[in-house]
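USER: For my understanding, would you kindly supply a protein sequence with its structure tokens?

ASSISTANT:
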Amino acid sequence: MAASANPGKEMSFLGHLEELRWHLIRCTIAIVAMGMIAFLAKSFVFDTLLLGPKSADFPTYRILCRVATFLGFEDSFCFTELPFRIQSRKVAGQFSAHIWTSITAGFIVAFPYVIYEFWRFISPGLRPNERRTSRGFIVIASLLFFTGVLFGYYVVTPLSINFLGSYQVSEQVFNDFDLDSYIALVRSATVASGLIFELPIIIYFLTKIGLVTPQFLRKYRKYSLVLVLILSAIITPPDIASQIVVAVPILILYEISIYISKAVVKKQAKKAKAAHG
């Protein structure tokens, strides 16, 4: 599967492992390089990006406020500030958060290159016609990932922060969130959404190797619905509205994946017929 200096020569198992190791090393270098840039851009990453959803001026809150006002529920989504503070209670808490946030940002920014290295590793194992038809893999996978990241940042994150940040069991209990906890929420919402949006790509490859068929996806659609609801409950606060907002695009991606699987199977059947004809 891996690329080699002599494409016509079969590589040994250890040779594949060595090639994979270099692909992983290059991916790591790219992530670290992008992470260093994010580390230097501390003010933008933290004040603008990470702490943005904490502000009442965040675009999602403004849109929700307008919609709520139009529907007559302005008390639900219109506010001047969220009733919680973020604090760091560990000696190295802020520095540790800075390091790990930079690495996460590095992975997000370097994702197209990571996908490119993955593609370089598997492409020699494909036939020439398969390699030609799959040239858009890197672009499509990157677009899906960044779309998922944006969805997680502008939809999942503010819904979660708004719900959890304003939730109180008693007026005598104040919400003072730890920095690590807040960052973990933003990170899980954005990165998880980005990876979930790769579902069509995953289904494409699973269909190519024969592990998934359109009939299988249709047969277990109702079970996938339950799985999607459980997944949306994990990455969102426990309120029905937020879970539905997250579940809808995932279900749409699932339906798109069925059509992708159908197209792959149809193409494989056509090739098999031509080969035997």
Summary: The longest strand covers residues 84-87. The chain has a mean pLDDT of 82. The radius of gyration is 23 Å. The first helix runs from residue 13 to 40.
